[in-house]
Amino acid sequence: MKPAEERVGVYPGTFDPITKGHMDIIRRGLQLVDRLVIGVATNPSKNPLFTLEERVAMVRREAGPLAREVGVGFDVVQFDELLMHFAERMGARIIIRGLRAVADFEYEFQMTGMNYQINPSVETVFLMADPRYQTIASKLVKEVALYGGNIAPFVSESVARAVGERVGGRTHPQAAGADA
């Protein structure tokens, strides 16, 4: 009998910043694989608030304890290449994607079709966002913070502090308070 092959999954994103919605998908994705690689994309077209190195460190800090608690192998790796090439390089057979709304599905549907043409042996698994997190988007979190709003319901306490420091302390005082 052939030994079971390690199930490696990739969860890609820019994570600028990592939100409670991302953490929900990571938590659930860890249940599906033996090793989860979180791919932090460069994507300069999104005008990131944090550098690539800062985002990698932030994802490690936020998701590492969860992976250790679940007992699943875990890596955070930056990438600047086609997702399918990255997945192949990581030995992944699964791409994990989170869906919040119909608009996400339309985009992801197209991406999955293109990715399948590149490598049909890598499957894409869609996880619907927990209803509590369906409206959270990193772009909106940054916008709320830039205008002095409270981002505590959308990100962890440490991420709220980091965002507040980055936008010059303009976030609402509760943004650095306890997690919602």
UniProtKB/TrEMBL annotation:
Function, as annotated: Reversibly transfers an adenylyl group from ATP to 4'-phosphopantetheine, yielding dephospho-CoA (dPCoA) and pyrophosphate.
Reactions catalysed according to its record: (R)-4'-phosphopantetheine + ATP + H(+) = 3'-dephospho-CoA + diphosphate
Cofactor section: Mg(2+)
Gene Ontology terms for molecular function: ATP binding; pantetheine-phosphate adenylyltransferase activity
Enzyme class: transferase
Keyword S-adenosyl-L-methionine tagged: no
Encoding gene per record: coaD
Residues that hold substrate according to the record: T14, K46, L83, R97
GO CC terms of this entry: cytoplasm
HAMAP family: PPAT_bact (MF_00151)
Pathway where it operates: Cofactor biosynthesis; coenzyme A biosynthesis; CoA from (R)-pantothenate: step 4/5
Top-level taxon: Bacteria
Protein name: Phosphopantetheine adenylyltransferase
GO biological process: coenzyme A biosynthetic process
Entry's family note: Belongs to the bacterial CoaD family.
Binding site for ATP: T14, F15, H22, G98, L99, R100, E108, Y133, Q134, T135, I136, A137, S138, K139
